[in-house]
TrEMBL record:
It comes from the Eukaryota. Keywords: Developmental protein, Differentiation, DNA-binding, Neurogenesis, Nucleus, Transcription, Transcription regulation. This is Neurogenin 2. Residues 40-92 form the BHLH domain. One of its GO terms (cellular component) is nucleus. One of its GO terms (biological process) is positive regulation of transcription by RNA polymerase II. Residues 13-45 have a biased composition (Basic residues). InterPro entries: bHLH_dom, bHLH_transcription_factors, HLH_DNA-bd_sf. It comes from Falco tinnunculus. Gene3D superfamilies: Helix-loop-helix DNA-binding domain (4.10.280.10).
Length: 175
DNA sequence: TAGGCCATCTGGTCCT
DNA sequence: AGGACCAGATGGCCTA
C-alpha cells in the first residue's frame, strides 16, 4: 500500500525514530490469482498487526500518563515504562501497607511485606518518608528522583537504576 | 559511527 | 478459514 497510508498519526509525537520506512517489496512477481489472494491476505494481516501494535502503544501511553516523571514531559521508553510501573505499584502498595501498619502499631509494621526493594532501590521505610500519609504520585519522593535521561533497562539492571525505581523485589517476577 | 529505540513486515502457531 | 498473538528480521532516526 501507499506510504501515505502508513503515516497514520501516532498517539503522540515520537521523540525517537522517524517516519516509517516504505513497505518492502519482496517477491512481488507473482501474478497468479493464488498469489494475489495470498498477497491480499498478507496485507490485511499487516493492517491488523499494525492496528494491534497501535492499540498496545496507546495502552502504554495511557500507562505513561499516570506515572510521575521528571521533567513532566519526559517520555519513558517502553521497557522503562513497564519497569517503572511495576516498581511504582510496588512502592504504592508498600505505602498503603505502612500506612495501615502505622495505625495498628509498630508490630504490624513488621508484618508481611512480601520481599522489599531490590538493591539500589530506595527502601520504602526510609526513603518514602512522609509518603505513607500521602500516596499521591506527585507528592512522592520517588517521582522526584526519576531521571528519564538515564539509560535504565538497556543493560542489566541495578547499575542503571540510580535515578529511578530499581527493579522489582527479587521474589516477585521482574519484567 | 555504534548502539538504542522504534515501527513495520512477515511467517508460524494457537484459538474461535 | 480467519483473526489474534508472537518473535525474528529489517531499516530509519536519534544520541553519545
Amino acid at each position: 500500500h501507499a506510504p501515505a497510508e502508513r503515516e497514520a498519526p501516532m498517539a503522540r509525537p515520537r521523540p525517537r525514530g522517524g517516519p516509517r520506512r516504505p513497505p518492502l517489496r519482496r517477491g512481488r512477481r507473482g501474478r497468479g490469482t493464488a498469489q494475489r489472494i495470498k498477497r491480499s491476505r498478507r496485507l490485511k494481516a499487516n493492517n491488523r498487526e499494525r492496528n494491534r501494535m497501535h492499540n498496545l502503544n496507546a495502552a502504554l501511553d495511557a500507562l505513561r500518563d499516570v506515572l510521575p516523571t521528571f521533567p513532566e514531559d519526559a517520555k519513558l521508553t517502553k521497557i522503562e515504562t513497564l519497569r517503572f510501573a511495576h516498581n511504582y505499584i510496588w512502592a504504592l502498595t508498600e505505602t498503603l501497607r505502612l500506612a495501615g501498619a502505622a495505625r495498628l502499631g509498630p508490630e504490624a509494621a513488621a508484618g508481611p511485606g512480601g520481599g522489599g526493594p531490590v538493591e539500589g532501590s530506595p527502601s520504602p521505610a526510609s526513603s518514602w518518608s512522609g509518603g505513607a500519609a500521602s500516596p499521591a504520585p506527585s507528592a512522592s519522593p520517588y517521582a522526584c528522583t526519576l531521571s528519564p535521561a538515564s539509560p535504565a533497562g538497556s543493560a542489566s539492571d541495578a547499575e542503571h537504576w540510580p535515578g529511578r525505581f530499581a527493579p522489582a523485589p527479587p521474589p516477585r517476577r521482574c519484567l
